Amino acid sequence: MGSQLLSTVERREVLPVSYIRPESDRPRLAEVTTDSNVPLIDLASPDKQRVIAEIGLACRTYGFFQVINHGIEGELLEKMMAVGLQFFRLPPEEKEKLYSDEPSKKIRLSTSFNVRKETVHNWRDYLRLHCHPLEEFLPEWPTNPESFKEIVSEYCREVRQLGLRLLGMISLSLGLEEDYIEKALGEQEQHMAVNYYPQCPEPELTYGLPKHTDPNALTVLLQDPSVAGLQVLKDGGRWIAVNPRPNAFVINLGDQLQALSNGAYKSVWHRAVVNAAQERMSVASFLCPCSSAVISPAAGLVRDGDAPVYRSYTYDEYYNKFWSRNLDQEHCLELFRSAQQLE
Ligand code: OGA
Ligand code: NI
């Protein structure tokens, strides 16, 4: 059987049945608002204390923020987007070679989210790569387009530096030592998803990615500069659109930072919607604890006499649980509450 890649078939006029969500689970795009207060953080600001306080507030209230003046050249961001798009435009035979729906494969081109587990598919293809240590994975990365390895490896190196710098600021914003989170997570892995959302004939009936939280520690997302699609769930159940800003990254906290912060910081629900007029790309970089890292709430953040909100577990245990499920179930972290909390 061939793959179910969307990017290898002609543009469709009707949404195939296997992508149609039940009526109770549709994006209701008319109800989505744009919030002009989405935190925007200028990393070049000379007032470091203020930047840390702003990050803390963003993590507590929104669980995500955008950063500008982050030190990564705009030209590299453009090249990353362009080579990603070139990849999805390759001839079908080229892409089939990389296709796999086995989540444990470290380099694979796939579609939807977890085609083996899900009942309704998502309007997305994605290329997933492990990126750290680069020397280990680079030989297996796609060799076509020709410039892929060079551009994407430079991008990955820069994004890693930015991510680690942000983890330092997030630690400080929690009142922890600057290197607390980095130490707690061990030698972090880095994974990347180059997401391609084709034009969709009926965007009201399906998702690019349904509501989910990211299972890792920190996500650095580069959005298509000209097409919106990312939406975040605010308290009270309102979906807000996070519209792209030129040269900005969207940063969101994953489940591991919610656990480490003992629930003070949130790994928020987000989703990607598709549209009828244009295809859309995004590049998500995930910093992930090393698989043997033991994750538990930082002792300094658990009040004396209280039980920690979450129990200790290894990231390996968490990651396997995450991929054994469908995306839009209950928050995966709910399955890791400490026994005292469950009583
Ligand atoms: C993801 C994700 C959002 C987007 O890849 O985990 O949330 O806008 N992507 O593509
Ligand atoms: Ni996500």
Give the topology string: H per helix, E per strand.
Answer: EEHEHHEEHHHEEEEEEHEEEEHH
Which range best describes the helical content: under 10%, 10-25%, 25-40%, 40-55%, 55-70% or over 70%?
Answer: 25-40%
Poorly predicted runs are none
How would you characterize the largest beta sheet? Answer: 8 strands, mixed
Q: Whole-Å distance between the termini?
A: 48 Å
- List all distinct small molecules, including ions and cofactors, that are bound in this structure: N-oxalylglycine, nickel (II) ion
Give the helix tally: 9
Tally of strands: 15
Overall geometry:
globular
Strand order of the largest sheet: 2-3-11-8-13-6-5-4
Domain Fe2OG dioxygenase: 188-289
Protein name: Fe2OG dioxygenase domain-containing protein
Cofactor: L-ascorbate
GO molecular function: dioxygenase activity; metal ion binding
